[in-house]
Structures are given as C-alpha cells and as structure tokens.
Amino acid sequence: MKIIVTDQSGEIHELEGLEGWRVMEVIRDWGLDIKAECGGALSCATCHCYVDGDWLDVVGAPSDEEEDMLDSVGDVRPNSRLSCQILCSEALDGLEVTLAPSAA
Ligand code: FES
Questions:
Q1: Atom of ligand 1 at shortest distance to CA of 48?
Q2: Range of 21's domain?
C-alpha cells in the first residue's frame, strides 16, 4: 500500500507501507521528520499528522485517549490524528497525510 506524506517543508513523499504497520513507523523508517518519541505508546503526540482529502472518513475519529493526547499540542486541527494510532491496511491504500509542526 502507498502513503502520500507531505512533510513540514511542503515536500511530497510517496512511501510504501506494509499492512499491519503503524503509519508512524512507515514515516519514521523512511527518514522523514517525525520524532515519535514514545515509539507508539500514545504518550507523546510527537507523531501528530493531519489526515488530508477525504481520508478522514476512512481513517475514522481518534479514541478518547488519543484526543486527550492531541489536546497537549498547540497545532491541532479538526483532521488531526496521531499517526501511531493508524494501522496500515489495504483500505488505506493511497492515504494522504501532512506532518504537523509539532511532530518535528
Ligand atoms: Fe508517541 Fe504516537 S509516537 S503518541
């Protein structure tokens, strides 16, 4: 599956993701600017991204725990998600996200 990621400088990257991986892991392993300090334990919010286009409906809303964590960053938008909480799947092939400033 492919993930289209716009980084903080506006550059667009087409990444190959494996089913079952977290979107954060794909972005990190491809070397983009994402801290992901807690490694996906839902305790840092430094994997913050914006879900672009119509993908938010497919990805779904954040859990209460994820929302609480998003409240700790200043650049939240209605389409904010923590990328460690999005699992790669065929249904998300072509997913478009933009890395938030708070992820760097
Ligand atoms: Fe820490 Fe996602 S990597 S909350």
A1: 2
A2: 2-103
